[in-house]
Every structure is written in structure tokens, then in C-alpha cells.
Amino acid sequence: GQNSPAGNAFVAEINTTAAPGASLVFSSFLGGSGTGGDIGFGEISQGIALDSAGHTYVAGSTTSTDFAPAPASASTPCGDAGFSTAFVVEIDTTVATPTSLYSNCYGGATGDTLAYAITIAPDKTAVIVGPTFAADFGVTTGSIPSPTPSAQYSVGYITKLNVSGTPAVPYSTLLGGSTGETIYGVATDSTGDIYV
Questions:
Q1: pLDDT beyond 80 at 72
Q2: Where do the DSSP E strands lie in the chain?
Q3: Which pairs from 118-121 meet CB under 8 Å and 24+ separation?
Q4: The pTM is what?
Q5: Percent of the chain whose predicted confidence (pLDDT) is above 70
Q6: CB under 8 Å to 20, separation ≥6 — which residues?
Q7: Does residue 126 contact residue 120 with C-beta atoms inside 8 Å?
Q8: Neighbours of 124 (CB within 10 A)
Q9: Order of strands across the sheet with 171-175?
Q10: Which terminus, N or C, of the chain has the lesser number of Cβ atoms within 10 Å?
Q11: Helices H, strands E: what count in the chain?
């Protein structure tokens, strides 16, 4: 939905080999009516990835409780408690009318969570990273011990979201110290190990 006074995220596919020049294959807005809260935007997309089937994955942050495409069952309500939450959207751009296949939000109700990068792991999970200020950010059993985020200091996070099955969040951890950290990039190798 293109309806936020603070701006929406968008995704676009451009064919640069078309004759006589480049052509826009597909574009769409992602978002809702969020007003930006502490972060000054309704939505912002900061990461994009493709899987082997040619599906497009977009990661970003939203303050919209009516984020579209709407998650079937969000891990965290989008725009939870007035704070930004990370979002991931999977779009099948290989069909004539591109369709959203998956949408999810992740974060907490006590502070902003931003998604800065995304990669698709060999097991087809989407791995997102960024900073969180949410003290109630969800981590999974066996996660790396790290300080709790606060309103003053962010902690970096790594979260795997299962776009095609369960569990919805197979792995989530915080990674950082006590003076404010974030994670800007992520990659996975052929065994599924994550690099940040």
C-alpha cells in the first residue's frame, strides 16, 4: 500500500538487456499507513536477495500496523507498540502477475528493530540482520549470550525466518557488547553457516 505520509518501501525489477533500452519489468510498494515514530519513515527497504527459483526477497523496517502484503501470521505484530519492526517479503516475480508468497515481521514491543541485510540460506530460510533496541527481542534456545538491548544501546541480531514451513523462526540470536552494535551484512556458505 502506497499510503504512508512518512513514505513506503518499494521493490522493482529492471531489464537492462531489453532493446532499444532498459525496461521496467515489475515494481510495487510495500507498506502501510505508519507515520514513522522515532525513525522518521513508514517503511524502508535495505536488503534484497534472490533464490534459485528466481523469487525476490525484500527486507526492511516498518512502523505500519497495517503493513501490506499482510503477514498470514506474523512472528511479531508489524509496527508493534509504535516501534519499528523488521519485515521480510517474498515475491514470485517469475509469473505474469507477481505475487507475494510470504510476509513476516520480527522485533519487539519495547524498542525499534531494523533489517539492514538479507540472504537466502541453502535450506531456503531467509536470514536477516540489523540492530534492535527491543529488550524483548525474541531469541531461540541455544543462542549466543549477549547483553540485552535498551533504548540507549542497540545490539546486533541474526534471525532465520522459515518462509515455507515450521518452525517459523528456527534460529534467532543477539550479537554484541554493551555500548551499541549493529550488523550491516550477512552471507551463508553451502553448509548453511552464517557470516556477518
A1: no
A2: 9-15, 23-30, 43-50, 56-62, 85-92, 99-106, 117-120, 125-132, 155-162, 171-175, 187-188, 194-195
A3: 118/47, 118/48, 118/49, 118/57, 118/58, 118/59, 118/88, 118/186, 119/49, 119/186, 119/187, 119/188, 120/49, 120/50, 120/51, 120/57, 120/188, 121/160, 121/188, 121/192, 121/194
A4: 0.91
A5: 95
A6: none
A7: yes
A8: 15
A9: 117-120, 125-132, 155-162, 171-175
A10: C
A11: 0, 12
Contact 67, 103 (CB under 8 A): yes
pLDDT at 39: 66
pLDDT, mean of residues 64-81:
84
Query: How confident is the model over 6-18, as pLDDT tens digits?
Result: 688 999 999 898 7
> How far apart, in Å, are the Cα atoms of 127 and each of 31, 48, 172?
20, 11, 9
Instruction: Tell me which amino acid residue 80 is.
Output: D
* Cα atoms in the 13 Å half-sphere on the side-chain side of 42: 22
**Pairwise CA distance, residues 75 & 78, whole Å:** 9
Residues whose CB is less than 8 angstroms from the CB of residue 193 and which lie 6 or more positions away in sequence, other chains included? none
Q: Give the span between the Cα atoms of 14 and 19, in whole angstroms.
A: 13
Find the mean pLDDT for residues 28-38.
Answer: 83
Cα separations (Å) of 192 from 38, 53, 122, 173, 188? 35, 18, 6, 16, 6
- Which tens digits make up the pLDDT trace of 116-133? 999 999 999 999 999 999
Q: How far apart are CA 153 and CA 62, in angstroms?
A: 20
